[in-house]
Amino acid sequence: EDAEKSGYDHYMLKEIHEQPASLNQTIHGRFDPTDESITLDDFEPGEFSDISRVEFVACGTSYHAALYGCHLLGQRGIPAYAHRAGEYASNPMPVDDETLVIGVTQSGETADTLESLRRLEDTPARTLALTNVIGSTAARETDDVLYIRAGPEIGVAATKTFSSQVTALALLSERLHRDITGEPSAHSSGLLQSLGALPEQIESILDSDPTAELTRKYQGMDAHFFIGRGIAHPVALEGALKFKEITYEHAEGFAAGQLKHGPLALVTPNTVVIAVFTGDHDEKTLNNVREVQARGASVIGIAPEDATEVAATVDDLIPIPSSTPELNGLLANVQLQLLSYHFANRLERSIDKPRNLAKSVTVE
Ligand code: G6P
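Above: the input record for the complex with 6-O-phosphono-alpha-D-glucopyranose. Below: its predicted structure, written as tokens.
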């Protein structure tokens, strides 16, 4: 087993460090930066021209990737909604022949996600599996499949597969826009250029890894709240999920604007708030940061390195290289993976096999 970890203490850390390579696999041959064409495997150009809305079904980390996908589609004018598969399986929504339902599932075997997709069998909706595992049940049972090509993931806490899911969804969103409207979206050039730079930018985060230091400063807190707005919202949810899964410490993710509708009552000087910034809506999230600071909480900001006002406001800054706001969320998430890993490692938790959790939940 030690040999399989390639010198890393845990599979999770190995898989975090594999992300530059796994993302290169995800994007390989799927777009050409010179003419900005997108070739998604065997999908013909115009393949999705009849689609008018997208519904996602997914669980856990894959649900957060789906929520991220909703933002990418929404910014391209395509209505999209993400359902928790456990709910959808019991309460499916009306669909028609212009609906594309995407099951996001790393393993392709999660029972709730499979059940949700099966509920659509006798409907006119088109189904697509976004999965990592070739020949998995989701891949076999849906109309179409798009593989994320992240390579095997052993750690129970999903890391590199989230990044590959979001990256594949970014390409698929742009492709849907082109098929539906006949032209690239306003975000197209920025997205494709930034996608090409992403693996190297992640490499630079991994090389500097500034989060280990913070685990000393913030140990023994009562609660860890992760907040974000827009694309930073699913990233905050994913940050909190990863944190609670492997540290067993209390962590919750909130939409930043939701704080004053309840969670603010829980904020004390023994709360740490981790605020995610992508370059979009930063000013509003900074107001939320000031609100929690006024109640004694400390704030760790994760933000693009050129976000000077964020740097001046938060108590500690974890910088990310600057990309497009659409992909800054992915870069911020890599820092959150490292933050959770270092906290859990300091607490000597069972990082690769957290208590009570399974890599793939095959029962409803
Ligand atoms: C379990 C795992 C999570 C994963 C979720 C969905 O809860 O512990 O890491 O995100 O299942 O798995 P899937 O294979 O469908 O992406």
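Notes for the reader.
Residues 75 and 309 are 25 Å apart (CA to CA).
The pocket of 6-O-phosphono-alpha-D-glucopyranose is lined by residues 59-62, 105-107, 110, 113, 156-158, 357, 359-361 (CB under 6 Å).
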